[in-house]
Amino acid sequence: MDIKQRVLLILCKTIYKPVRLEKSDAIKTVFVNHSNVQYIKETTFNVLKVKVNEEYKYFRECREHGCFKAYLHQIIDDFFANYNKYSEFNKYKNKIYEKLTSKGNIDKVYNLGIINDENSLVTKIFKEKNISLIGLEDFQVLPIIYFLDFLQFIWGEIYSYRLNEGVPEGSLQSFCASRILATKTLADLLNLGRIIPNVEFVELHVGDKDVRYGTLMDEVMGVSPSSLTDEEKLMLSPNFQRDCSDLNLLDALTNEKDHRPGNYLVSFNDRLIQGLRAFDNDSPMSFFITPKINLSTYWGSTPFVNSRGIISIPYLSKNTALGVLNLNENSINVSFKSTLTRIQIFFLKLRIKKMKKAIVKTLKYNEEFLLEDDAWNDSTLHEELNMQNLNSYLRIFCFCKIKEHNYEEF
Predict the structure, then answer these.
(1) What is the pTM assigned to this prediction?
(2) Hey, what's the torsion of the CAs at 184, 48, 219, 188, to 10 degrees?
(3) What is the pLDDT of residue 410?
(4) Where are the domains of the chain?
(5) Which of 184, 197, 321, 361 has the fewest CB atoms nearer than 10 Å to its CB?
(6) Residue 188: what are its φ and ψ, rounded to 5°?
(7) For the purposes of burial, counting CB atoms within 10 Å of the CB of 29, is it exposed (0-12), middle (13-18) or buried (19 or more)?
(8) Under a CB-based contact definition with an 8 Å cutoff, are residues 189 and 169 in contact?
(9) Rounded to an integer, what distance in angstroms lies between the CA atom of residue 173 and that of residue 112?
């Protein structure tokens, strides 16, 4: 595990622990049949795709926090009950649990790490296809795909446990949920609801006995950027430039570093890309305790604000800028009291204050910086596309050659 991950996990136990969410905080109860649930594990944090009133939504569970051994038992039960595709594998569940929780192995499981860290134990297991690294050498006669499927499920659940170690035992693991909910709240305050889907904290009943708590997000409709050719990515409406600009500002305020093209879908109209909607809104560094707004994403976007305090992208929506300028301390305190801790709210207010200054300063530098909704046009679009020294969200979408990480490849 790299040093940044180690520091993050230490902070999660103390000043960066999430706000508490309890079962009583669920705003509604949702009932679905088993036949209307699809269990998805090819993500960092496992997801349930559920059909509610003929519409698909995505549920991300907040498990109850407790001792690690009991938690491991819970997630292993969940895997074999709902995610395992190989019937032969089911009879080994108890033996696998015994092995993983033995004195010599449980620390290895606890320290599996994340796939995005090339030095982590879980990455090494996937690359070498060597399950003896976590003490499962007795099962090497079984197909390795059984265990790669199993590990794909548990590593994210264990990472979630580590991120939530500041949560009291018996409370729900709220680290990711709080960030999803807070991101949607801020987007709505800035009238940017079109780029962040609706999400609610709910009590979900699957069948008669399976009750879970977590976030339920509307399905995002659109096309994945990874499915588009280089030529199709340049078939753009100026509205898409506006959405990229708005998402970049929102991310600078939330400190969201992971809104790469793989974490949003784009919409088409008249054969042109019209807009985007971001669906992965809970990266561990979002709403971090930092006052900085010179955000640079994991894909190396140009810092949103440069060293002179000027916003780096050429244009910003006037309506979005006014939304930021009109935010006041009282509305921020009230809006986020249930999703962010006091220290997170404090630093959010610092970032908003800095953003207000950056907007005013940039407008003095460039009087044409703020655009009405009908002022985004082919000229503004091509101006940004031709800025060779700018790695904006728009240019990353159009020109970046980084390959999207696909968990199914492991």
Answers:
(1) 0.95
(2) -10
(3) 45
(4) 225-409
(5) 361
(6) -65, -40
(7) exposed
(8) no
(9) 19
